[in-house]
Amino acid sequence: MKEVLEKLITQAIGQKADFDLTAPDKSDFGDYATNVAFVLSKADGRSPLSIAQELVEKIKSTDNGKVINKAEAVAPGFINFWLNPEILLQELADILDQKNKYGRFKTATPQKIQVEFVSANPTGPLTMANGRGGFLGATLANVLEAAGNKVVREFYINDAGNQVKLLGESVLAIIESTELKDEYYKGDYIKKLADKFKNKAGRIKKTGGRIVADYLLRRHLKPSLKNAGIKFDNWFSEYRNLHKKGELQKVLEFLEDKGLAIEHDGATWLKTSDIADEKDRVLVKSDGSPTYFLADVAYHYDKFIKRKFDKVIDIWGADHHGYVARLKAGAKTIGADPEKLEIILVQLVRLMKDGQESRMSKRAGQFITLDELLNEVGKDAARFHFLMYAPETHMDFDLELAKEKSLKNPVYYVQYAYVRALGVLSKGSGSIANHAGLKELSSDSELRLIKELIKWPDILRQTTEDYQINRLPRHAIDISRAFHNFYEHERVVCVDPAIMKARLALVSATKIVLENVLNILGVDLPKKM
RNA sequence: GCCCCCGUAGUUCAAUGGACAGAACGAGGGACUUCUAAUCCCUAGAUCGAGGUUCGAUUCCUCGCGGGGGCACCA
């Protein structure tokens, strides 16, 4: 729809121009509006309004009433378009034809994209904040896939570093009743682990705590993620895929050959200062052990050079922002294009209790787990709630309040719209109008609903470009609102068979689009409520 | 000290530089003998401050104020 209008406008101005075409909130401003006259007036100095008036005439004559019902130049220079109802009905028929493919498309340049997310240290249960990044990553992957890209969803398992060692020591200290150091992990789950591993102290020591981390991953992290509806295509182990295979050493040698890794003060440093506005960073410490940074560079060598991803999206907590420039510089040293590495920072969730902030800390054993969140408010409500916020929002979250309000979560508004649609369809004998029969749809609430439904392809397309996932749940709410409004105003199952068939077609289209949106969000739609 | 993010109705959040700043919850009022009232309709209510750029600023720039996070041979 948008593309057709864009083409008409471009034809009228006879040149390429960077203008906007949007669907305004106010129906007074038409179904679509453009600022093209403002853009052109910058170049030739004429008043936007007169340019707009001229363009309207041109557009009207080329279109000749095919797509546009009415076009108007309005002060100070906007052009508003009202679509020909026939076009709306064609688009509606399109939904009914394409069904679950409606909105999906094949991008002109399909890419091999990796989305790496959650990647929490396997040193404790997943927290609510891990959930936020998880929901975002899972949904973003779905969006990119809907645009015809090949997507790999990956979890990076930090099972080789200091944190895992600390985990092992924390458990050992309880088993062997030795001193509990400040930096140790605490909390009930550590005690439970100590009980579980009480006869395996030797194994913990031998594996540097990895055996405990593996257990946590298998028995806690993976099931939690599954319950949250967060799926992964690949679990990448730092220990097995990098350390054990000697990949760290290989990347180090590669960098040394290029003269980018140098030794001084007993350590090996990566010369990022030559390549980016970054100071040199340590790859191998003076005690001979590799830094986490070296593992990360090797990991991205694997992503870009060995697996040849066209694009890599890493989703991190905002507390890692200082690491962004460093990793991009690191990526450059191994010959990867930093432009192809996209890092999305998700702000931390502020945990509130009785209006007061209550600090979360995994090490102190004080946090809300993803499991608690799922148990208390449910997968769909939790998922929908978190996805409604932009990643850069510092969201406040109060579990008690969330429990109390969970019944008012907008997800139920959307699900209820869906259930109502199913109810009507089951009473409507199944026969829906063909394209010609859709002409019966002409009331305000009917047209409003159609206009909302046909925005879906544009919204999905835009989201594949700017990753603003929070737009999706909001669109689901908009559709639901338009549907509830329609439902309250127009009787579907009624005496006039032509009207009934047309309205059943509209309800059917609503069902289809809601399914398509919520599938991408990973939120289930119930059959009844 | 330096770096990143945020500041919008009472509250939690929206708004690719566009027109009269939208929702939800909360507040007030109305609507069920008909497809599920977990709904619909109506009302009140907001851009932290000061400059700047622009035809136009919640959005971009500068400064200030307030909040969150980060500045290791930790991860």
Secondary-structure topology with pairs:
Blueprint: H1 2-13, E1 21-22, E2 32-34, H2 36-44, H3 48-63, E3 68-74, E4 78-83, H4 85-98, E5 112-116, H5 128-146, E6 150-157, H6 162-175, H7 188-196, H8 201-206, H9 210-227, E7 234-237, H10 238-243, H11 247-257, E8 261-264, E9 267-270, E10 281-284, H12 292-306, E11 311-317, H13 324-333, E12 341-346, E13 350-353, E14 356-357, H14 370-377, H15 379-387, E15 396-397, H16 399-405, H17 410-427, H18 444-453, H19 456-466, H20 471-489, H21 497-521
Parallel strand pairs: 5-6, 5-11, 6-7, 11-12, 13-15
Antiparallel strand pairs: 1-2, 2-4, 3-4, 8-9, 9-10, 13-14
Helix pairs in contact: 1-3, 2-3, 4-18, 4-21, 5-14, 6-7, 6-9, 11-12, 14-15, 17-20, 17-21, 18-20, 18-21, 20-21
This protein binds one RNA strand of 75 nucleotides through helix 2, strand 9, strand 10, helix 17 and helix 19.
Label the CATH architecture of the largest domain: 3-Layer(aba) Sandwich
Task: State the CATH class of the largest domain.
Answer: Alpha Beta
In helices, the fraction of residues equals: 40-55%
Number of spatially distinct domains: 3
Could you name the CATH topology of the largest domain?
Rossmann fold
Supply the number of helical segments: 21
First-last Cα distance: 35 Å
Low-confidence runs: none
Q: What's the gyration radius in Å?
A: 28 Å
Question: What do the pLDDT scores average to?
Answer: 91
- Largest beta-sheet characterization: 5 strands, parallel
- Strand fraction: 5-15%
- The main sheet orders its strands as 7-6-5-11-12
The CATH homologous superfamily of the largest domain is called HUPs
Question: What general form does the structure show?
Answer: globular
